[in-house]
Specification:
This protein is mainly β. 3% of the residues lie in helices and 16% in strands. It has 2 domains: 157 residues, Leucine-rich repeat, LRR (right-handed beta-alpha superhelix) (Alpha-Beta Horseshoe); 99 residues, Leucine-rich repeat, LRR (right-handed beta-alpha superhelix) (Alpha-Beta Horseshoe), CATH 3.80.10. The chain has 2 helices and 14 strands; from the N terminus they run αβββββββββββββαβ. The N and C termini lie far apart (57 Å).
Length: 291
Amino acid sequence: MHMKNIEPYKQLETIRHRQDGVPCAVMAAGIPTDLAFTKCELTNLPAEVLNYTELKSLYLGENPISKLPEEISSLSQLRELYIFGCKLRELPAGLAKILSLEILDLSHQPLQNLPANIGALKKLRVLYASNTDMTTLPVSIGDLVSLEYLGCTDNKISKLPETLGKLKQLKELRLYGNCLKELPHSFSELTALREAYLRNNQLTALPSNLGELSALEVLDLRNNQITHLPESIGNLQNLYQLDLRVNPIETLPEALRYLKSLRKLDLRWTRLTKEPTWFEQLRTQGTLIYL
């Protein structure tokens, strides 16, 4: 489908009010700054779009697009790009040349991998790449120095690069529904991390230096193969919620009693047979313990 087939655009004050199946645009001085083609049955990116070099956001979600042109790099002012629910198996290297990108959504399609040069996107704050066929993350992921949210859930990722620890601004990490058996040693270097969702993997242990995640508030580890917790977990003084459901844990480190901020500890469907005496200390401080 080409631009001439879908003009005129429905003009909006804000692209957030777009209507699926209807081409929408926000204009400034007659020039589109935001375009939305969600559910417009596009099979490719209309060549005319590449002429709109002032574009700030582009929505291409839920179209049968199987390939993007290298020339997408010409959209040098683009801040938000949503290409979820398409049929992309690979991405052009030119995507990583849009240095202004802050939000990138690549979810829900048979994507095999991220561009090796994705680390060039120094302004990227949010990256969605869930429900794809990815098995790894590129080493350059650690160069995304502004990244605050990384969502790579329900993929086939079996190993994370050590460079992950370079993401010093990362606040929320969602990697549930993958094939992870271990976390990189550098995981503890994510010093800004507040929420980590790692359920439904194959983790057998946690890094011994886990306690260095001083900002961590939520740790979701349910449905893994974890048998024990590191003693350093007692150093997570901001930890508010710890979910250990469906893990073959038989004993717990007494260091857990020192988690002053802990308000929920979920131990259902573990192999814990005896309740530690120090649980009462946690309950006294207001921790809800589920056994």
